């Protein structure tokens, strides 16, 4: 009817009309004769074949679009013969086909094949319409992969969380018992072995939690030179013997407050990138030095505040970074490597920001790359630095309210504090704790609470206490926190990560108590 008439007016007479339509298609349209030789392919066929029409005209499909793998080729050949018989018998079919073009590209085609008939209705061959689904498949695979990674992360994080509670108990009692033995006794050495093994186990759970992004941020006041020195062996192993690693050690360095594991992560990520950028042999130079960051430098580093910083620098003699790569450097998943993840520099950047610092990159193609990580200097007094190796002397006579749903862990905590001279009250969740506070807030000096608990969790308790008992200090403890928990709630302030050893815990609590004068009224005065 009228429609076809219209089409004819636009593109010409009937033969040309259909030729035009078929040749404009994105989809591959291919015809074979009764013996299976290719007699027609539209322009889209050339794209999928990776070659021009003359190259595959008159060939069999499997002769041209064959996979490199001989086993797959054989399979394709057999299937093609079988399908051909079906086509000639009048059957249509849809299937997925993996082909490799002459350009070496592998593609996935979704094929819909039907018998080809002459004007009298006689079957004279086959016609196939194929869609290139390679890209869609790839996206599906990526989605599948990231879902898998997330599931693995969640599983690992869950296991690590339960393990943390168990390890807290093992580690806690082992440390407590250790101090009852003289170091010459046999049991002392045995207990020490338990302590060391549980310390290593804690290290493992921490790694699992980092993988699942549930790691607790554990800042400590450290000397960066020591963190670098502790990592040098690992770095040398990573870069291989053709790359020389040097560390420029200064006489002295201001202290910084950092999470050592995360700083080590920075060093390893940067070292791996340096290794990848160095063709055969070369050098990686690491340094840590103090630097004053003025206003203009502060903006260039990415909006950090002005002041004293310690700069951790890693310089390589590699290929350098071209301008178009530089633009995207810190984007997660941006990579120029065939097996890269694109997570190295984005993690470095994230960690630096986490420490109120920044990253600066200086690079020239052919001349190597220098990456500087700026970490703010922490003002500390001598006394604070020396107080760390003081175990168990952090005793006290105050009353601590212990809020923890895991009975075993709660019992351990009670014993730790009682042994150090404290008085304790107990609660199994946030609601119980609030009830206890309503009755005897004036007798309690500090609340130590787990984060994840039934009924009312640690965060809920903290918020309720800010309302009703604003002058009563609370410390939270947890083996893992979800991102939502930490954001904007200032949890790093009074936070202790499980598993902890009794001396660490007692010391944190002692410090916290010493910062809070005892005489303040703890209840909010009622408005009268
Ligand atoms: P990945 O290493 O997985 O590619 P990264 O986030 O670590 O991901 O790095 C992103 C990109 O930045 C790299 O693919 C590379 O092109 C470039 N790059 C990073 N570090 C260097 C370096 N030291 N020298 C040259 N190019 C680098
Ligand atoms: Mg990398």
What does this structure look like?
By secondary structure, the protein is an alpha/beta fold. It is built from 19 helices and 17 strands. It has helices at 2-11, 14-24, 43-49, 53-56, 61-64, 70-88, 134-178, 186-211, 224-239, 260-277, 295-301, 323-326, 344-354, 382-386, 407-419, 430-440, 458-468, 483-486, 502-515, and strands at residues 28-33, 38-41, 93-100, 106-117, 123-132, 220-222, 243-248, 256-258, 282-293, 307-316, 358-364, 368-376, 399-403, 423-427, 446-450, 474-478, 495-497. Strands 2-1-5-4-3 form a 5-stranded antiparallel β-sheet, sandwiched between helices. A 5-stranded mixed β-sheet has the order 7-9-10-12-11. Strands 14-13-15-16-17 form a 5-stranded parallel β-sheet, sandwiched between helices. A hairpin with a 4-residue loop joins strand 1 (28-33) and strand 2 (38-41). Helix 7 (134-178) runs antiparallel to helix 8 (186-211), helix 9 (224-239) runs parallel beside helix 10 and helix 10 runs antiparallel to helix 13 (344-354). The longest helix is centred in the N-terminal third of the chain and has 45 residues, at 134-178. It is elongated. The N and C termini lie far apart (91 Å). The structure holds adenosine-5'-diphosphate and magnesium ion. Adenosine-5'-diphosphate binds next to helix 10 and helix 13.
How would you describe this structure in keywords?
single chain, 528 residues, alpha/beta, five-stranded antiparallel beta sheet, five-stranded mixed beta sheet, 45% helix, 21% strand, binds adenosine-5'-diphosphate, binds magnesium ion
